[in-house]
């Protein structure tokens, strides 16, 4: 009986092997048809975005003769800088750049400051009618600028700020602050109450809670708003065209459009004006690219 038991114990047990699916190296799945379709879509979209910049860059350094002989897509036979020099001198380009930098910078700083104060009162202060106030700020962003021109024109005429850069600064500060308040009030509304209560127990006032607790934590979001407010204000055209009628107060987009309406300008000078108007914003974006990336990705990974 013992021997038979030993025979049973020594009998090998066979386990059917599991089928293991072969995976490519690196653990990545093979590209599917939808992946190739998305890649093709991205390439086409990139080409559509790059094409206008290529036309501006090529035609800016092309003489009118090269343009008439080869068309807009051909490369210039020689570097032609007269178009850039003509636009630079006719509009006093450094003055227009300074006007745009001053207006956009003031609007960005003031709009962010007002947005922080408004959002602190709405999102953290928990004032009455919070939802309706946020809805009003949202509706303010939906109003077209054309609907604001008539009342704003007479209002700034009455106070003596027409044809003054401060009229444009005030208008865009209010417009951008409405969007910033709507965005930041939603962000501050989810702020941990425990942190605020701990700061209040330590004796911090409301101003100290705002500038020493909330402001450092929300700095990436505020940096993104600052950059976007600057670029949005820089590219604005209708309101600066309406309120800045004198040549000395005009911004870069207004100067480009007004000069492009002149029949004495050729295509190469028009392309040169577009290139000069693009360079400042491109430099600004490259300088603050890392700040913009950090602000957008802040909070995405804990």
Please tell me about this protein's structure:
The chain is mostly helical. It has two domains: 55-91 and 259-301, no CATH class; 103-249, MetI-like (MetI-like fold, Orthogonal Bundle), CATH 1.10.3720.10. The chain has 15 helices and no strands. It has helices spanning 2-10, 33-60, 64-70, 82-91, 93-124, 130-142, 146-159, 165-189, 193-201, 206-217, 219-234, 238-243, 252-260, 267-287, 289-297.
Count of the domains: 2
Q: What percentage of the residues does DSSP assign to strands (E)?
A: under 5%
Report low-confidence residues grouped into runs of 5 or more: 1-11
Structural class assignment: mainly alpha
- Count all strands and give the number: 0
The Cα radius of gyration reads: 30 Å
User: Considering the protein shown, what is the CATH homologous superfamily of the largest domain?
Assistant: MetI-like
* Helix-strand pattern: HHHHHHHHHHHHHHH
pLDDT averaged residue by residue: 83
- Helix fraction bin: over 70%
> Termini separation (Å)?
66 Å
CATH class of the largest domain: Mainly Alpha
- Number of alpha- plus pi-helical segments: 15
CATH arch. level architecture of the largest domain: Orthogonal Bundle
Determine the CATH topology of the largest domain: MetI-like fold
**Main beta sheet:** none
Outline type? globular
């Amino acid at each position: 009986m013992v021997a038979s038991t030993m025979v049973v114990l020594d009998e090998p047990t066979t386990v059917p092997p599991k089928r293991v699916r072969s995976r490519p190296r690196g653990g990545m799945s093979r590209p599917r048809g939808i992946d190739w379709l998305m890649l093709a879509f991205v390439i086409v979209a990139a080409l559509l975005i790059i094409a206008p910049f290529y036309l501006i860059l090529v035609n800016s350094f092309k003489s009118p003769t090269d343009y008439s002989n080869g068309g807009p897509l051909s490369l210039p036979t020689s570097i032609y800088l007269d178009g850039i020099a003509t636009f630079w001198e006719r509009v006093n380009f450094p003055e227009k750049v300074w006007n745009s930098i001053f207006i956009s910078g003031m609007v960005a700083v003031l709009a962010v400051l007002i947005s922080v104060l408004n959002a602190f009162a709405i999102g953290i202060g928990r004032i009455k009618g919070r939802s309706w106030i946020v809805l009003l700020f949202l509706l303010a962003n939906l109003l077209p600028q054309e609907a604001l021109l008539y009342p704003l024109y007479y209002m700034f005429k009455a106070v003596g700020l027409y044809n003054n850069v401060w009229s444009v600064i005030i208008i865009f500060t209010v417009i951008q602050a409405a969007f910033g308040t709507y965005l930041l009030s939603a962000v501050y509304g989810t702020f941990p109450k425990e942190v605020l209560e701990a700061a209040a127990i330590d004796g911090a006032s409301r101003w100290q809670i705002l500038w020493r607790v909330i402001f450092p934590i929300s700095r990436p979001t505020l940096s993104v708003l600052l950059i976007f407010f600057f670029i949005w204000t820089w590219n604005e055209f209708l309101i600066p065209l309406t309120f800045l009628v004198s040549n000395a107060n005009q911004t870069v987009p207004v100067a480009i459009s007004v000069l492009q309406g002149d029949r004495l300008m050729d295509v190469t000078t028009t392309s040169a004006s577009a290139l000069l108007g693009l360079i400042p914003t491109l430099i600004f974006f490259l300088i603050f690219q890392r700040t913009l990336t950090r602000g957008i990705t802040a909070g995405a990974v804990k």
